[in-house]
């Protein structure tokens, strides 16, 4: 009966509520520093992203300011500019340019050769199988040739008789 009367009394009910509130406040106090650290990290990364975007914006603004100069430079042909080269080096430059042009002309074939390097083992195995098939066909061809020659000799004997 004492236990039943204790639970009904408002004094003990208030105490249980107060204890519950204290427990909730303790939980909030435990979670609050974690929330603060998470929001601090979020603000830090947002700040970094904002700095990067501001740098990009400054760069783009500078490019837009120089847009007219950039267009002129892009439209202007590079071959019309003179190269300040001493006369003693003119022969070497001409030789170098001819070699550079030759290299550029052959560049695609060189690149194709480099791209085919990983396929060499597969190509070699294909060549081996093709070679063995060719040898087999040569053997069969020799056998057929011998049979044809024998048949020809038999035909000559038949017509001669």
UniProtKB/TrEMBL annotation:
Pfam families in the cross-refs: HAUS2
Keywords (A to Z) from UniProt: Coiled coil
Domain of life: Eukaryota
Signal peptide: none
InterPro entries in alphabetical order: HAUS2, HAUS2_metazoa
Coiled coil: 53-80
GO biological process, one term: spindle assembly
Name this protein carries in UniProt: HAUS2 protein
